[in-house]
Amino acid sequence: MSKMEQAVQQLHQIREEASEDSWIHRIYPTFKLLLTVFYIGMVTQIPMEKGEILFSMAIYLVFLFVAGGISLKLCVSRLWIALPFVAFMGLYPLFAERDVLLYFGRFPVTTGMMQFLILFLKGIYTVLAVYLLVVTTTVEKMCTSLAKCHVPSAILTIVLLIYRYLGLLLEEAERMQQAYQLRAPGQRGIARNTWGSFVGLLLLRAFERAERINESMRLRGFQGEFIYWEQIKLSWTDWLFFVTMCGMMVLLRWIPVFRLAGQMAESMIN
Question: Using one digit for the tens of pLDDT, what is the confidence trace for 180-211?
């Protein structure tokens, strides 16, 4: 299977996962969006000297993975490409801060290493929080939530059109790649001297496909913006989930759970 086919398949899988019917998927989408923003804000504001709290903040992510039945293996296979960008954020303190904090045997652990680890974990937690929101909420519900938060409808229309057209663009690129491989059997990939014409042809085909889609939408009454007709009911379980998760985040943010658990275990042993 080519990389283009894998990208199309993964996009369809994410859409199917977001349309599942677990109780996490049925939670009020605006609450899930607010929880994600709140969690990212809490994680990014943790100071360097309290880096141990980051391990406690992972409990929220683990809870969503388990409650939503989300595959950690699929998550890693999809997000591994983001790891170099996340690691890049912590490269400067890794080489700039050389003060030794402690030793593991003969191996010194510097302040730069600790800062690199903390920044890396913050980036990973942020990416995972957004991923969990995407795989548990459809883009239509997401746009409905943003509309209720008074986000301009023009922005929501652009987001929804890009998301829906992305699959069509990838499928078009896949067809062109298959046609190229049929005309150049035994050749791995696309030759460099044809990259320009390949991208140009893909752009022309994309414009043509977009024009046909726009005409068909106009014939069906599209006037420039989507009408979010989906009525999502707000129940007491949604409020309970929202308040509980907010309380748990605040608790994990200010209380070193693992340190207290270790102290309790040590006192029980002694």
Answer: 777 777 667 677 777 778 778 888 887 787 78
**At 155, is the pLDDT very low, low, confident or very high (cuts 50, 70, 90)?**
confident
Helix (H) / strand (E) element for 166: namely helix 153-183
Residues in contact with 131: Cβ distance below 8 Å, sequence separation at least 6, in sequence order: 75, 78, 79
Note the pLDDT of residue 266: 67
Give one DSSP letter per residue of 25-62, joined into a string: TTS-HHHHHHHHHHHHHHHHT--GGGTTHHHHHHHHHH
Q: If you average pLDDT over residues 59-81, what whole number do you get? A: 84
- Of 43, 46, 51, which Cα lies nearest the Cα of 130? 43
Which residue in 160, 140, 147, 130 sits closest to 32, CA to CA?
130
Domain locations along the chain: 20-137+232-260, 139-229
Q: Which of 52, 34, 54 is nearest to 44 (CA)?
A: 54
Q: How far is residue 27's CA from residue 145's CA, in Å, rounded to a whole number?
A: 12
